Structure formats: structure tokens, C-alpha cells
Amino acid sequence: MTADDPVSRLDDDDYPAYTMGRAAEMLGTTQSFLRAIGEARLITPLRSPGGHRRYSRYQLRIAARARELVDQGTPIDAACRIVILEDQLQEAQRINAEHHRPTGPSGPPAV
């Protein structure tokens, strides 16, 4: 399989495989909700050659988290900001963990 093989795209979290209608159906929400979180700049769907919005699995996970918050009563703009901050925190924690990994043998250097 090559990178251009359609089958290899099935494993790609960032591949924009889902139409707006399918994404809304999968999330159990409306297309207007997806447009609203797009306007709030939580996610930016890619566009098909015909101009239709296309969503990746990663974007659907982000949208699902925003929907959870909205369902709990959080205003949509606040929900989007929370999800952005959670994503930034997770990335900072990942980077921090990388910097604190031991790189050599443990213990003090030999004298």
C-alpha cells in the first residue's frame, strides 16, 4: 500500500472522510451545531472540490467533547474555549513528559 492508496487513509485520523451530514449523524447533533463550532474556530473543516465541508475523525472527537459541554449547559463559545485549553494542556503535558524522560544510564556520573 502507498500513501495515495485509499485504504491507507482509513487509519489516518486527520483525513477528512466525513460529510457534514454524516458527521452530525455520528455525533447525534445538528449541522448547525457543526457550523457554530466552526464559526467559534474550534475546528476548521476542509472543503471538498465542490465546497462541501469534510471532517476528520480527530475533528469529530473535538466536536464530541464540545457537545458534551454544551449538553451540560455550557454556552457554545465557552465550551469551544474549554476544549481548546484542554487540548493545549494535553500537548504541554506531552512535551513536558518528553523533556523529563531519562536519556542515559541512571545514577550519578562515574568519577
TrEMBL record:
<protein>
    <submittedName>
        <fullName>DNA-binding transcriptional MerR regulator</fullName>
    </submittedName>
</protein>
<dbReference type="InterPro" id="IPR000551">
    <property type="entry name" value="MerR-type_HTH_dom"/>
</dbReference>
<dbReference type="GO" id="GO:0003677">
    <property type="term" value="F:DNA binding"/>
</dbReference>
<keyword id="KW-0238">DNA-binding</keyword>
<dbReference type="InterPro" id="IPR009061">
    <property type="entry name" value="DNA-bd_dom_put_sf"/>
</dbReference>
<dbReference type="GO" id="GO:0006355">
    <property type="term" value="P:regulation of DNA-templated transcription"/>
</dbReference>
<feature type="domain" description="HTH merR-type">
    <location>
        <begin position="17"/>
        <end position="85"/>
    </location>
</feature>
<dbReference type="Pfam" id="PF13411">
    <property type="entry name" value="MerR_1"/>
</dbReference>
